[in-house]
């Protein structure tokens, strides 16, 4: 916790479950229905979006700091694992993948990337599989990029290396 008693400070990188990595631009006090409300102002450059999250509700909203090194290593190890594809209908699996991506949990996101990754010698993905794969890969790459202080493309390179090793 910072000096102000807040969990995050201006310019911290944070992860918001539904949107991925953002940056805290400010902590503001806003008048809402005659009450004062302190909010984190978070920008998500890749979505050109700004979100205001009440500081008191940040934890319950799932706002978290970037993953620690051990979590990143675990996520990279997950990528190297064997794909686990359930034999349920695609619509059900797609919902589960979507839920994992939006959980904001790096290891869950890594599971989606692993399960939907296709090596060059494997059959083509459907459009919706490709969309979910791209979404999960992008979410994971942005967090790895922020942690390692590299750009998204370099992070995708790291992730792809882990996936190729697995194939």
Characteristics of this structure?
167 residues; alpha+beta; Thrombin, subunit H; Methane Monooxygenase Hydroxylase, Chain G, domain 1; 2 domains; 5-stranded antiparallel sheet; 5 helices; 5 strands; 44% helix; elongated
Describe this structure in words.
Residues 7-117 form the CarD-like/TRCF RNAP-interacting domain. InterPro entries: CarD-like/TRCF_RID, CarD-like/TRCF_RID_sf, CarD-like_C, CarD-like_regulator, CarD_C. This protein folds into two domains: 13-65, Thrombin, subunit H (Beta Barrel); 69-166, Methane Monooxygenase Hydroxylase, Chain G, domain 1. The protein has five helices and five strands, in the order E-E-E-E-E-H-H-H-H-H. The chain has helices spanning 69-80, 90-103, 106-116, 127-148, 152-166, and strands at residues 13-16, 20-32, 35-44, 49-54, 64-65. The longest helix is centred in the last third of the chain and has 22 residues, at 127-148.
Count of all domains = 2
Number of helices: 5
What's the helical proportion of residues?
40-55%
**Low-confidence parts, pLDDT < 50 over ≥5 residues?**
none
- CATH homologous superfamily identity of the largest domain: CarD-like, C-terminal domain
> Residue-averaged pLDDT, rounded?
91
Structural class, please?
alpha+beta
The H-and-E topology, N to C, reads as EEEEEHHHHH
Q: Just name the CATH architecture of the largest domain.
A: Up-down Bundle
CATH structural class of the largest domain: Mainly Alpha
- Cα separation of the termini: 42 Å
Kindly report the spatial arrangement of strands forming the biggest sheet: 4-3-2-1-5
Biggest beta sheet summary: 5 strands, antiparallel
Rg, nearest Å = 18 Å
Proportion of strand residues: 15-25%
């Amino acid at each position: 916790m910072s000096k102000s008693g807040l969990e995050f400070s201006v310019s911290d990188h944070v992860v918001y479950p539904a949107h991925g990595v953002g940056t805290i631009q400010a902590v503001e006090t806003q008048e809402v229905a005659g009450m004062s409300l302190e909010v984190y102002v978070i920008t998500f450059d890749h979505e050109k979006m700004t979100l205001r999250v009440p500081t008191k509700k940040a934890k319950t909203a799932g706002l978290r700091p970037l993953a620690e090194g051990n979590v990143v290593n675990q996520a990279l190890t997950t990528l190297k694992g064997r794909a686990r594809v359930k034999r349920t209908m695609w619509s059900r699996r797609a919902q589960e993948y979507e839920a994992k991506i939006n959980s904001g949990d790096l290891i869950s996101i890594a599971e989606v990337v692993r399960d939907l990754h296709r090596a060059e010698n494997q059959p083509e993905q459907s459009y919706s599989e490709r969309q979910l794969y791209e979404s999960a890969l992008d979410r994971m790459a942005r967090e790895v990029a922020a942690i390692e202080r590299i750009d998204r493309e370099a992070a995708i390179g790291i992730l792809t290396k882990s996936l190729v090793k697995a194939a």
